[in-house]
Amino acid sequence: MHELQIAQNIIIIVNEELVRRQVRKKVREIALVIGQMRAIIPETLRFSFNIQKKRHTQLEESELLIRENDIVVKCNDCQHQFKIQEPQFYCQKCHSANIEILSGNELYVDSIELAD
Amino acid sequence: MKIQIVRDVLEANDQLADQIRELSKTHHVTLINIMSSPGSGKTSLLEQVIPVLQSYALRIGVIEGDITTTADAERIARFEIPVSQINTEPFGGDCHLGSEVIMPALQQFDLNGLDLVFIENVGNLVCPAEFDTGANHNFVIISITEGEDKPLKYPLMFRVCNTAIINKIDLQPYLELDVGILEKNIHQIHPDSRILKCSAKSGENIDQVVDHIRKLVNK
Predict the structure, then answer these.
(1) Pairing relationship of beta strands B137-143 and B163-167 according to DSSP bridges
(2) Per-residue pLDDT tens digits for B194-214
């Protein structure tokens, strides 16, 4: 259910940027990057966003474009770099627990595409 | 036309969480955020540890994030400590506590008169993990009735918590759950996680939980 607030935050951020940059055109697309670690369900987020966008004239026709990032980690002992498919946070090669998450924690508005 | 933005969706929450950490640092108060599923024993554990921590002269406050009722706050208020109650909306309450509700709750306290503030988060293993409360330490409680697989199903929660408390160990004779597998699963998600096993009902191993908290408070 945190998707509801996340959708709200996306709208706040995009509206702030539109005001700051004095953009009056409508927004066609909002590109969002979400790491797999964040436990966000894209369908739920899109659903929450589509309900809330209707109250904002510049966003009412916009769509969320969601890019999902895999969880990629690096072992600090053997330097092995790999993608995590299952929730196991240790090195697949040397079994060390000394791993660092390189990507998968992202949650940001990357860009917006304006209507013509 | 494309406009590059690159702004973190939770930036407002995270910035306020940093301000909460600054505030608690200024007043030498340690904030511990306790999270779990509903019914894992957050309030019961607080009821066990608070009087013992008080016996070590620690001055404690509690921020209660229960949905709609004040039942938990009333249980805690018996210890005659300051309790700040956050009620999320009736019939559709929020699923977590964000820093925007923690800050005003914290400001209700006389922080110079406190050493430790517990945040009892809303019972939920998903959303609270996502929102930084500004706490110095995150605890997750998992009771052994919940099954061994929960850390694997809610990895973010077990990643953000450095302390995992396995509760209700007094029920072990009635359950098929293997606590060893549960511990292994927690470590699979968070290899450095400190695991403590206790019963907030019988009081078993509560001293270990208290010792751990006292070390974090460092007083």
Answers:
(1) parallel
(2) 999 999 999 999 999 999 999
Specify if A9 maps to a domain.
yes
Mutation pick from B9, B14, B101, B132 vs chain A, by most beta carbons of A within 10 Å, is B9
Phi-psi region of A22 (alpha: psi -120 to 50; beta: other; left: phi over 0): left
Q: Is A94 among the domain residues?
A: no
Interface test with B, best of A5, A85, A113 (most B CBs within 10 A): A5
pLDDT in the model for residue A39 = 86
Shortest Cα distance, chain A CAs vs residue B212, angstroms? 23
| CB A36 within 8 Å of CB A71 | yes
Does residue A42 lie in a domain region?
Answer: yes
Instruction: Print pLDDT tens along chain B (219 aa).
Output: 999 999 999 999 999 999 999 999 999 999 999 999 999 999 999 999 999 999 999 999 999 886 556 677 778 888 999 998 886 565 556 788 899 999 999 999 999 999 999 999 999 999 999 999 999 999 999 999 999 999 999 999 999 999 999 999 999 999 999 999 999 999 999 999 999 999 999 999 999 999 999 999 976
**B60-64/B83-85 β-pairing:** parallel
- Tell whether B32 is covered by a domain: yes
* Residue of chain A whose alpha carbon sits nearest to that of B127: A2
Query: Which residue type occupies B39?
Result: G
- Predicted confidence at residue B219, as pLDDT, reads 61
Residue B72 lies inside a defined structural domain of this protein:
yes
Of A6, A14, A87, the CB nearest to B188: A87
Question: Would A51 be classed as within a structural domain?
Answer: yes
The span from the CA of B13 to the CA of B162, in Å, is 21
Which residues in chain A are closer than 8 Å to B156, comparing Cβ atoms?
37-39
- B27 in a domain, yes or no? yes
Residue B153 domain-assigned (yes or no): yes
**Residues of chain A with C-beta less than 8 angstroms from the C-beta of B126:** 1-2, 39
Task: Determine whether the interchain pair B191/A108 forms a contact, defined as Cβ–Cβ distance below 8 Å.
Answer: no
CA distance B209 to B165: 8
> Are residues B130 and A39, on separate chains, in Cβ contact within 8 Å?
yes
